[in-house]
Amino acid sequence: ANQSLRGVLARLLHTGDPGGWWAVAAGLTTVVGVTVAVRAELRGERAGAVVACAVTALLVSPVSWSHHWVWCVPVVLFLAARGRAGAAAVTGAVFCSYAPWWVPHGPGRLELAQGVGQMTLSALYPLAALAVLCTVCGPVRPWRTSRSA
Questions:
Q1: Count of C-beta atoms within a 10 Å radius of residue 19
Q2: What is the rounded CA–CA span in Å between residue 101 and residue 122?
Q3: Distance (Å, rounded) from C-alpha 43 to C-alpha 25?
Q4: Span between the terminal Cα atoms of the chain, in Å
Q5: What gap in Å lies between CA 148 and CA 125, rounded to an integer?
Q6: pTM, full prediction
Q7: CA–CA distance from 101 to each of 12, 111, 119 (Å)?
Q8: Which of 31, 38, 44, 88 has the largest CB neighbor count within 10 A?
Q9: Number of C-beta neighbours around residue 90 at 10 A
Q10: Do 21 and 7 touch, CB atoms closer than 8 A?
Q11: Do 113 and 104 touch, CB atoms closer than 8 A?
Q12: Alpha carbons 84 and 107: distance in angstroms, whole number
C-alpha cells in the first residue's frame, strides 16, 4: 500500500506508472511543503517546520509504505501541543485504523482496480498529510499594512 502521491496517482489512474502526473504533483507538493516549513520556521515554530518537512518527504517519495509513516506520532503530538485536540484525535485515529489495508491489494495489482470508496480509504494517509500541511501553514492572511504610531 504505497502511501505516497505516486501510489495515490497510480491507483487513481489505474496504472503502475503515473509518469509525468506524479512528477508534476511531487514538484508542486515540494514547493508548497518547503514554503510551509520555511514560514513555520520564520514564525519560530520549529516543530511545525519539522512536521511540514516530514510529511512533504513522505508525500513526494516514490514509495512511502505504511510503516514509513511513523512520523504520525510527532504529527499527533504537534497538533495536540498546538491546541488542536480534535485534529490530533482524528489524525491519530486515521493512522491507527490501518485503513489502507481494508481495501484489495496484493498479487495481481488489485489496488489498480479500486473503486472511489476504496481509493479514498487507501489514500487516507496522504490526505491526512495534506491536512497537516494546511494546519502548519495556519490561516493565510493578506499582507498587513503598517499602522502609524
A1: 12
A2: 7
A3: 27
A4: 57
A5: 47
A6: 0.85
A7: 17, 10, 11
A8: 88
A9: 15
A10: no
A11: yes
A12: 40
What gap in Å lies between CA 128 and CA 147, rounded to an integer?
38
Q: Which residues contact 54 (CB under 8 A, 6 or more apart)?
A: 71, 74, 75
Residue type, 75: V
65: cell is 509504505
In angstroms, the CA 59 to CA 128 distance is 11
Among 126, 138, 128, residue whose Cα is nearest residue 1 = 126
What pLDDT does 139 receive?
Answer: 59
One-letter amino acid at 89 equals A
Per-residue model confidence as pLDDT tens digits over 122-142? 899 999 999 999 888 875 544
User: In this structure, which amino acid lies at residue 111?
Assistant: E
pLDDT average, residue stretch 31-38: 95
CA separation for the pair 138, 36 (Å, rounded): 9
Query: Cα Rg for the chain, rounded, in angstroms?
Result: 17
